Amino acid sequence: MTDARGSAHRDGEAPVRYTPGTPCWVSLMVHGADRARSFYEALFGWEFRPGPQQLGPYARALLDGCEVAGIGLLSPDLDLPVAWTPYFASVDVDRTAETVRACGGTIGVGPLDLAEAGRLAIGSDPSGAVFGIWQASAHLGRAVTGVPGVPAWNELTTFESERVAKFYATVFGHTAQPEVSADLDHVTLSVAGRPVAGIHDVGNGLLRDRGPHWTTYFTVADVDDTVDHVLHLGGQILQLPHDSAHGRIATVTDPEEARFALVQTSR
């Protein structure tokens, strides 16, 4: 696991230069936007600014003045889960959307323009996991990485990982590297030799009530303390804090049961 948006800059900002296929944004669509913003503001110290207007009641989350995520209101006519959704960078969202369809995926939203912000689409892979496609405008801002409160990694839980990995490789140009052991079936997706996301194959063990899905990992200073904070704010614990090869991690939900993970890379 490594920072999917570029080299980690723990004490500052990094220029936004997203290579196509790189996760470049995460967004959460909820039924109660005010409650969600209050939860993540208290948990991660985010501040919020409105926009883009084309997304309705949508707010960009900022940390130290840098955009790190977005939270919006889920429209009743959209058949989308309350979940964190990763967006992958594209130089041509329309062409990428066409490739998604040609490879057995679907496009549920867009492509649509967001004025000066860029152009996006939301789709799902052949297994049903939802993801976004983002074509940034020419005016790129700055992003903060490697510090508490920012996205660090995205992991896809699915079945038939080989087939799904081929889908992402064709659509976004990812290189898929399997890592198979007695207790792990994992594929790392890379762009230009740099790991950007992972695929975890659980086969028949996949939760029926959830289905294939992406999970966003957020960096925190102390996983155990943050988990306690999640509970205090009305969230739940799905996987208790535990040590892994990539640091101490836990999986939790917010009050609307949107899942996300916490990772502490140093102790």
Question: Regions with pLDDT < 50 over 5+ consecutive residues?
Answer: 6-15
Mean pLDDT: 88
Give a quick account of the main beta sheet: strands, pairing sense, barrel closure.
Answer: 8 strands, mixed
CATH class of the largest domain: Alpha Beta
Residues in β-strands, percent = 35-45%
Protein name: VOC family protein
InterPro entries: Anthracycline_SecMetBiosynth, Glyas_Bleomycin-R_OHBP_Dase, Glyoxalase_6, VOC_core
Organism: Streptomyces pratens
Summarize the structure.
The chain is α+β, with helices and mostly antiparallel strands.
List the main descriptive attributes of the protein structure presented here.
single chain; 267 residues; alpha+beta; 2,3-Dihydroxybiphenyl 1,2-Dioxygenase, domain 1; eight-stranded mixed beta sheet; globular
Question: Topology, please?
Answer:
Blueprint (H helix, E strand, L loop, with lengths): L12 E3 L7 E8 L2 H12 L2 E4 L7 E6 L2 E8 L10 E6 L3 H10 L3 E8 L4 E7 L5 E7 L5 E3 L6 E8 L2 H12 L2 E7 L2 E8 L2 E8 L11 E7 L3 H10 L3 E9 L2 E7 L5 E6 L3
Parallel strand pairs: 2-5, 6-9, 11-14, 15-18
Antiparallel strand pairs: 1-10, 2-6, 3-4, 4-5, 7-8, 8-9, 11-15, 12-13, 13-14, 16-17, 17-18
Helix pairs in contact: 2-3
What can you see in these coordinates?
With 267 residues, the chain is α+β, with helices and mostly antiparallel strands. It has 2 domains: 14-144, Roll (2,3-Dihydroxybiphenyl 1,2-Dioxygenase, domain 1), CATH 3.10.180.10; 151-264, Roll (2,3-Dihydroxybiphenyl 1,2-Dioxygenase, domain 1). Helices cover 16% and strands 45% of the residues. The protein is built from 4 helices and 18 strands. It has helices spanning 33-44, 93-102, 161-172, 223-232, and strands at residues 13-15, 23-30, 47-50, 58-63, 66-73, 84-89, 106-113, 118-124, 130-136, 142-144, 151-158, 175-181, 184-191, 194-201, 213-219, 236-244, 247-253, 259-264. A hairpin with a 5-residue loop joins strand 8 and strand 9 (130-136). The longest helix has 12 residues, at 33-44. It is globular.
